[in-house]
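Sorry to interrupt, but I need a hand with the structure work. I would like you to pick a protein and set down its sequence and fold. Please put the record directly below this note.
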Amino acid sequence: MLGKRRLLIIDSSDATRTILFKEISDKAPDLDIIACSSGREAMTAVRRFDFEVITTGINLPDTDGYKLIDEIRQTPKNKDTAIFVVSGDTDTRITGTDLGDNEAVTAYIDKAEGHKSLVNFILNFLGSHNDLPVKILYVDKSATSTAITTTILQKNGVEYKHFKEAPEALEFLKNDIKEHGSCSMDVMVTDLTLSGNMHGFELIQAIRNELGLDYLALPVLLMTIEPGEDERTDFTGIFGAGTNDFITKPVDESDLLARLQTLVNIKRQSEALNP
């Protein structure tokens, strides 16, 4: 993994928080666990830290669990974090304009199955996508940017495949899918401006439309230059092209790793929930 692994437990019951904290800590000592009793405490934590998994009950002392999930999804650090709703009513589903559809919740866990079932579910979920090497497809024509980015990736033990031109990257993905039956790369990082006639947006659209790789099958991090004072970033164009996230150059190591970690989690979570 690329950063500190964290779990957030949100439950109004002191006994439940204590039991979950102890049982998970005993089995996953390297996992940083934060336990909160209210929505207010939880929001303080999610604004400060990025979490790999968040579990929450529905009935909290100061808010509704679904409203809290909506707030969490609005935070940059945890907008894509796996969120498990722990409830006695597993038929409950999110409805209404505030939360949109069920995609806001990663999974529902029946409280009636007990603490051990919840602990095992969390640990199995974490273990199913955490020990595999991170594999990045990196597309960039700039020698300077490539040197900086690949140094960061190498330093942090990230496997990567680098191409300067979009058609080369596209051909690599076609062969990768043919060989493995699905895309084996966790994230694609591409510059907006590439060598040849096909640039970043066209590459992303080809991956989404021609290869059929959606936001979960191959998350995309787009690299772009910092806009000048008189320029405006076209966010609609960036995300409308099929990008999951973007980062400005020159890249900051901690920022790059944090964004990659979030996107890797998206890919691995999708694989864990849809084997």
